[in-house]
TrEMBL record:
Keyword Oxidoreductase: yes
This protein's name: TauD/TfdA-like domain-containing protein
Gene3D superfamilies, per database record: Clavaminate synthase-like
Keyword line: Oxidoreductase
Pfam families registered for this protein in UniProt: TauD (PF02668)
TauD/TfdA-like domain mapped to chain residues: 33-318
Domain of life, source organism: Eukaryota
Position of the signal peptide: none
InterPro entries named among the record's database cross-references: AlphaKG_dependent_hydroxylases (IPR050411), TauD-like_sf (IPR042098), TauD/TfdA-like (IPR003819)
Length: 321
């Protein structure tokens, strides 16, 4: 699909890459100066909704820049313009509701690197689209790097074909321990009561089961969640038959509160995990946030993370089916 829309013009940003003929991120700007306001943007998005949705799938990452989006309310208007269904975040990251369908992104310490992941990759239903809005750009660092997931699969198959096919055939099992209460000093510090929206253990177990999890209660009040089997790679409709590295093996393997192994209990070789970590970083793409930026991710196609940052930094998020 060639770019053609009178309501946007193509821009550039530092860090862009061409991946298999696709510009990532594709930068869209106002066509003229007097079309840089939120009302003009909302009209353009609603008028060209189907075209824009196809563009997100084609380029995987689309960055709206120069439209002077001022606050969470205007960002929420952008989210609502598409009519996409909301999907409630489930995961370990501490987050706070801001407005409408808008939440803070991970509130863990800015000094920590948030490792690459597909949003809610472990849940039976993941968001199709992830939207990010930069309200306060960081003075240094704080980028949101992302990785074309199919490139990871391609390179892992080149180097470890037998290990990849074994993991894919057996499936993966993950475990993660959620604390009894929120710990905002940790990027994975969301307590189980907040995560499941209840303080009743039986209700938490019911909600966990609906999400494809089993719970094991710990003596200290924490809970160990066990998930699996889960796929190593997946192919999603409309994305050129690409085999996405749709897992969180590197992010959870051998960590203090989490683990990742094959579903039959077989350990994943350390050298495979280590090399995968290197490949993911080698394939990463990133740009510097500017105030008012709105970024659309195809969550089926991209892993994303967060670089360490100096404060202040405020990036808001919305997740859509």
């Amino acid at each position: 699909m060639e770019f053609s829309c009178m309501d946007f013009k193509v821009g550039k940003c530092q860090g862009q890459k061409l991946v298999d003929g696709e510009t990532m991120p594709l930068v869209l700007q106002p066509p003229v100066a007097d079309k840089a306001d939120i009302n003009s943007l909302l009209l353009a998005l609603k008028t060209n909704r189907e075209w824009f949705e196809q563009l997100i799938i084609k380029n995987s990452a689309v960055l709206l820049r120069g439209f002077h989006v001022k606050n969470a309310q205007e960002f929420n208007d952008i989210v609502e313009a598409f009519g996409w269904d909301d999907i409630r975040y489930v995961g370990p990251a501490p987050r706070t509701h801001v407005y409408g369908r808008v939440w803070t992104a991970n509130e863990g310490p800015l000094s920590e690197f948030i490792y690459y992941h597909h949003e809610m990759v472990l849940i039976t239903e993941s968001p199709k689209t992830l939207l990010l809005y930069c309200e306060v750009p960081p003075p240094e660092g704080g980028e949101t790097p992302f990785v074309p997931s199919f490139r990871v699969t391609e390179r892992m198959l080149e180097e470890f074909p037998e290990a990849v096919e074994e993991m894919d055939a057996k499936g993966l099992q993950y475990s993660f321990t959620a604390l009894s209460k929120n710990d905002t000093s940790s990027m994975r510090g969301r307590g189980w009561e907040d995560a499941f929206g209840t303080s009743d253990r039986a209700e938490a177990e019911r909600r966990a089961k609906a999400l494809g999890m089993d719970l094991e209660w710990q003596p200290n009040g924490a809970v160990k969640t066990v998930l699996g089997p889960r796929a190593l790679t997946r192919v999603f409709e409309g994305r050129k038959g690409r085999r996405m590295w749709f897992n969180t093996v590197v992010g959870m393997h051998g960590k203090e509160l989490s683990s990742a192994r094959m579903a039959d209990g077989t350990e994943i070789p350390e050298k495979v995990v280590k090399r995968c970590e290197e490949i993911i970083e080698e394939e990463s793409i990133e740009f510097k946030w500017e105030k008012g930026d709105v970024l659309f991710f195809d969550n089926m196609a991209l892993l994303h993370g967060r670089r360490p940052s100096l404060p202040p930094r405020r990036v808001l998020v919305a997740t859509c089916k």
